[in-house]
Amino acid sequence: MKKLSVLLFLTLFLSGCSDNWGWYVVNPYNKSGWVNLKFLISGYYFTLLLSFTSILISVAVGLLVALPGLSKNPWLRKFNRVYVEIVRSVPILVLILWVYYGLPPMTGLEINVFWAGVVALALSDSAFQAEIFRAGIQSIDKGQYEASHSISLNYRDTMRFVILPQAIRRILPALGNQLVYMLKMSSLVSVIGMQELTRKANELVVTEYRPLEIYTILVLEYLALILVVSAGVRWLERRLKSDERV
Amino acid sequence: MPESPVGNDIEIKNISKAFGEFAALKDVSLNVKRGERVVVCGPSGSGKSTLIRCINGLESHEEGSITVDGILLNHKTKSLEQIRSRVGMVFQQFNLFPHLTVLENITLGPIRSKKVTQEQANVRAMGYLERVKIPEQAYKYPRQLSGGQQQRVAIARSLCMEPKILLFDEPTSALDPEMISEVLEVMIELAETGMTMICVTHEMGFARRVADKMVFMDQGRIVEMAPPTKFFDSPDTDRCKTFLKQILHH
Ligand SMILES: Nc1ncnc2c1ncn2[C@@H]1O[C@H](COP(=O)(O)OP(=O)(O)OP(=O)(O)O)[C@@H](O)[C@H]1O
Ligand SMILES: [Mg+2]
């Protein structure tokens, strides 16, 4: 709450300097300013859709990659290491460009901007998710597996009912960080033309020539988004903690 | 249950087990008859835990053979599954599932592996909670219970799988002294029902009372095996004598 009020104050303060600045460009009280502002804010739609779709996929893929990393079989462990190392070493921006421009001619598949963004973001994030899950699962006491074994649970049930529920509670802060990171990284998908927050701001700058004001709004948009999401993650953490009693 | 033809529930023949270079079990053999109660004792590191963990496949043995209720334990998934469903285990550290309530801890196994409905499992679980005398704790989380209560939940969790054999690995060693007797009491009642039991414990009062057979281990071998009267009054080996003197003086 305090942060939000500071934010509000900052905006008001900045709008006070309207002599040197050109705040008319996003001033909700004049018609074109209001249209511009709506245009900028509408970028939230794809920023959110892109980020949440990507994080869901990357969590699933990350888990699937983490499990072989915990296996006794050295080949499965090797697969986990190779996947993580390769994916982790490619910059996200490069991955986005490669998936959008490189993948279609290589595979003959058509891919639109949105799904190219999702594939690139999810792929890149999955390596981090895999490491987070691996660490989380490894932190669970060996006795939990032994107890599961002794009541005849198979591997799947042991993971599903005993290990993962505990591991996920422990890694929730890390997953929250990844989500915030994802929201920020989604701005890179603007380079292939995804109409999210950053792209919208860029386009408006080209027509209005007011980069200072428009990018300031962009910064505030991300700031507000991240603050809200972080608060949501903390709320979820508290809720899960309260019935954990560990 | 004990009336069925008296065979061996567990046959351990000449097993060995090494952790790297270190031999934890050396040529160990042990037969346990149906309904028999065996108490295993011995100094720390003598291989007691390793021995009973081999019986339900938590550790793999290298030589020799283990047969449980007629099933050869060979670490193929099938035999492991069959053996697990016949053998329950109670651990020193309880190993309850902290994110589940007491009732959920107890019903998870039956529901997932025995194809019992939720209601049937709940009824059965409450029955076993009564047997361990804490039905009123059913909806609490493990963390909210005392150590003695937690261990009794762990016993109920094992019982709810309706095993033929129960293994106990120092079930009272992690408990405060005032809670030991409530757990031992439950174990004594269990012994009276004719359950086949192998208990690793240093509670010699309990051993005298329920054991049919005492086993003393040292450095990975079974050094002495005798009925309790003989075992406590005139053990054959000096090592066993010294050990008994030490723990009975505590
Ligand atoms: N996973 C393992 N890796 C390496 N060594 C092990 C492992 N488990 C047990 N050991 C060793 O094997 C020996 C026997 O261990 P075990 O746990 O069976 O002893 P114990 O008789 O149960 O002792 P305690 O009374 O302390 O529980 C010990 O020396 C122990 O250090
Ligand atoms: Mg032990």
Q: Per CATH, what is the topology of chain A?
A: MetI-like fold
Largest interface: A-B, 21 and 29 residues
Instruction: Specify the structural class of chain B.
Output: alpha/beta
Largest beta-sheet characterization of chain A: none
Radius of gyration of chain B: 18 Å
- Number of structural units classed as domains of chain B: 2
Shape by Cα distribution of chain B: globular
CATH architectural name of the largest domain in chain B = 3-Layer(aba) Sandwich
Oligomeric state of shown chains = heterodimer
The percent range for helix content of chain B is: 25-40%
The dominant shape of chain A is flat
Number of helices of chain B: 9
- Regarding CATH, which class of chain A? Mainly Alpha
* Span between termini of chain A: 30 Å
Mean pLDDT of chain A: 90
How are the secondary structure elements laid out?
The complex is a heterodimer of chains A (246) and B (250).
Chain A: H1 2-16, H2 31-41, H3 44-69, H4 74-89, H5 92-107, H6 113-138, H7 142-150, H8 155-185, H9 197-208, H10 211-242
Helix pairs in contact in A: 2-9, 3-4, 3-6, 3-8, 4-6, 5-6, 6-8, 8-10, 9-10
Chain B: E1 8-19, E2 22-33, E3 37-41, H1 48-55, E4 63-68, E5 71-72, H2 77-84, E6 87-90, H3 102-113, H4 118-131, H5 147-159, E7 165-169, H6 177-192, E8 196-200, H7 204-210, E9 213-218, E10 221-226, H8 228-233, H9 238-248
The complex binds adenosine-5'-triphosphate and magnesium ion.
Magnesium ion binds at residues 48-49, 169-170 of chain B.
